[in-house]
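In the previous chapter we treated chains in isolation. Here, by contrast, the input contains two separate entities that must be folded as one system, with a combined length of 1133 residues.
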Amino acid sequence: FPFSFPSHPPREEGGPSLVAGWGEHGQVLEAGPGRRQAQPAFVPRRGATGERWEAADAAAVPVLLPSAGCWIPSPAPQDILFRSGLCRKLRAGKSGATLDFARQLGHFFVDHPEDAFGSLGRLLHKNFYLGNAKLKVTLSRNSTIRMTALVEDINRLEARRGCPRQHLASRLRWFSHLCRDWLFEVPLGLLADCLHEELAQQWSNLLFDDSLTGGALAWLPPEDGETPVGLLVHPGGQAMNHLYFQDVVLEELPHARGSPAQFELSGRIRQVAAARVDGQDFVGVRSDYHCGVWKVPGKTGAAPAPLQVIRTDVPASCLTVSPHLPGELSVCTQSGTVYLWSIETGLQQLRHDPQTMFFRDHSPWRWSDFTAHPRVLSCADRTGLKCLDARAPKRCHFDLFKVGEEAGCQQGERVVLPMYLGRAHPSQYLVTTQFSMYVLDERLPLVPVLKWAHMMQAPPLFAHLMPGKPGKSHKVLLGASRTQELLLLQYRDSFWDVSSGGSQSACQLVGTPQKLHSISGSLQHLPTQLPHRHHLLQQRLSAPAAGLAATLQEDGPRKSMLIFQLSEAGDVFCQRLIHKAEQPPAPPSRDTTTTAPGSSPLFEAPASSPHGLGAAALRYRRWLRALSRAWREPPQHTWLPSLSQRRLFTHRDLEGPAGPSSLQKQMHQRLRQAMQEGGRIQRWEPLALQPPPLPQTLELAGGPDPLSNRLTTAWAGDWDQWWEERTSFSVAQRQRALRERRRRQKRAQGRRSLSASFTSSLTYQSELSELSDVGPSLLSPGRPPILSQESSPPAGSPPVRSPPPSPAPDEALLSSQSLRCRGIPKERRKTLRDYLSVWAEGPPEPPEPPASQASQLCFPSSQSQLSSASQPRRKRPRMGF
Amino acid sequence: GEDGFADLAVEQEMHGYFRKAAVNLKEIIKIPGVWDVFVKCYVDLLEFYGDHNEAHQVLNEYAYNSKFPANPNAHVYLYHFLKRQGESKKSLISALKILHDIVPSHELMIDFNTMLQKSKKRKKRQLGLEVIFAALDYAGWKENAKAWSCLARQVKQIVISEKHLDWIKQEWNSRKDWWPDFHFSRYLAKRNWQENKSLSYEKALVAGILLGKDCKYFKYVSHQGCKAQLKRFRMLKKIVTRHNPVNLRICG
């Protein structure tokens, strides 16, 4: 492999090549069988014929049942980023994300009030009065101020969060100016700095999380290769802090056998590394501040035994297990220290350098691995790799790989994962960057013997090697985390010709790199789910990948490859590839087009299967059932959502007795009607009594045919009304409506007299209609009173209607004011409100919360509280204080 | 007559091609890089036309120019060229010495070791021991029977003559904390015995001398050997038992 060896930093793309491409083996064509080539033969970088592997199933199949505990998803971009209409407008011009700093700081104040204002709160609580009543004329009057209005302002602010019309009350502004300097326990500036740093860190983790490098899944193959039972080592549990050693039987579909050996650790497991030395498996486990090592004896069924644990002050970024010596590992920390860790002799520091090796890079990520010599370790950072001799680490070292022109790197290219390929060739090394994969030979450092642009969307954080027999190709699997990509590459290492005294030629990539199924790809093959189930399932299946393992299985002439993939939710999925005998290379037949949900080859009955359904489909059925069981179990620590009206309305709003004017009534009615129809009110002209014709699109959404119309109304709950509408004439209908209205008014009055007792028959719907009743009065007249549909209902689900409005606009308001009027004692008012808010939850599990889309603009918090009652609450991400 | 004339024309044409190729190759090889294929072809051409001096110079330049990456193949080519030319042992050894410094795990190290063992100079023989020990450090050589027999022969020689025991001691000092686990574990003894009896014989000899007769590897292999009634292994036991005091001196 002729190769020019310039030694300067990477040039920009398109620069003139030194020898105009002469001799660069990228351009060499493979010699056909008919053409003779002189010795030594030129070897092209990529050979055309490789082994063919085809997926046995249409999608990856779950290996283990989902764990019972509910999974807490890691923060998503929408949790950290600032989102509001105003901001989106501001951000349209500039690139880069805006972190929602204020919201997180607010979370801190609400969640940890003791830590935020503890001592001053205690000092001042006598001087602040928060009650509703007028301050009594007492001696303390001079030293007490009434803060009720301020608290109400704050509560209102909370209720209107996200509302684009929200304006800061001047009172609040004044108060925060006054006390910003002294109120907080931790100085605000300091706190803000820390929070901002943490937020930025979380955001960068979200963009690229290198703590997962190496992957947290290991497969320990059976010792003798006869019994098809291996051990799968994987993390699990809610916080991924349980380590499982699970026996897995490799059959057509691998399945778990018995219950796993389980260890609870004190941190989230980031990496599981394993190596086999002298017939024993050593498993290294890395969490942020702890690393541990387990020994698994070779005999099947023997229990794994923990050997040793070390604690680090700085998060560890790497743990690798020596393939040469039992009980030796290498550990790197983010402070730039590399240790050789031996179970017998403890830690030996090999290197400490907080700076990166070849040029400056800000990343604290370090990696280290073993080499062909058991006493020589490689250590890596984002800029390259070095090899150190553990016996004299200061003196004996050499550069193995450098991000630079030597290896033909691009600008901005960084090392992502190095891996020792010792099982394939004792002196070879794999280095992946975000653009390419390189195979290096430590005998000829700096010059890669193979380079290939992998073209993955996300940098490959996981790699797995399956060495081939002599003369066969080695298989390398690359896996990315966020996008769950999996890529299968085959390469043939250099041909060692001992008789000629060792001539060395470059490695060759054989066959086409092959993209494999990802976990999230199986979603399209699953049966159709209810929309919210679908969403949860989608969230679960598209969790970032956290590990990768694979094994080759030879069963006589049949060869197959099993690939395990772990997701951050703790699910382990598996896919089988079957080796196809020599055939003319066909174009890749995998179609990536989406099949209709539910109608996939996975769930079609294969002709060969006697049961009618494939094993994979049955496996999915069981997995989905277990998953939905886990969802149904109510999370332990959810609180009942309570709806307090105090947060929604001002004092004045609740002073209801003065009835609304006729104009207001009219407006209420129109607004209600518009909300019911899902339409919009173009203009608030009082004279235009007829609502403007609905846009055509809405008609379409409702469905032109009577059947879908009927279904839609049935969904909304007033199917009988629809039937009557259909049967009666419009005049009769109008008369009936009038009668009905009068009747209801009467009933409402009757109810009002009853409501003093606790046998209130108020329902969820009247509660909702209250909200919509007061809606317009919250809008100040100065702003353009245009209500529009904020988002259209998802396609496929019927348009959602608001429940029928309550007839009387002066329906009993459950304010403390009105309750007091009715003589309900103060201490019971809260109980009543709570009681009613429980009612407000509505039916136990409506498939879609019957919430009016139009009202969302005004009552985002109240609506979300209502709708989230039926769904498991998504945890707000909290910063790690 | 005419045939000869045509041959001459062809020859002249070929020579023209050679000169053209030589000029191009020479220019390319001047640029720092890995030009293995080109260098090999160029040297072949030069040798064919009898320009051995130029070939030597090209290979020297390719191997020793510090601007080029440290390419073990350059030294291999030089060594093979020198061997073809029948150069002196001394120049061969110096070429391989550099190869040893760059890649101690190179295949040619066995040749190098044999060459050094035959040498009369003590220094060279010591270097030979160093070379073979260094090669066996590498995982790729773990099961190389040839290398183990080289080591076993030399170690046996030293022990029987009881001269230069300090050479072994010096090499062993930096390895005694990890070679036993790396090479002489009981697991490996079992496996080597099953897979390659002569390898296990050589290794058992080295293990017996370096670690004494109580070493797990030696015990297992000699026991199995005696059970199988192999004469070789009975001899092995005798040698090791007789020279067991030597082991104390190596370790002490």
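Residues 47-72+458-581+613-630 of chain A form one domain. Residues 368 and 816 of chain A are 66 Å apart (CA to CA). Compare these points with the single-chain example from earlier in the chapter.
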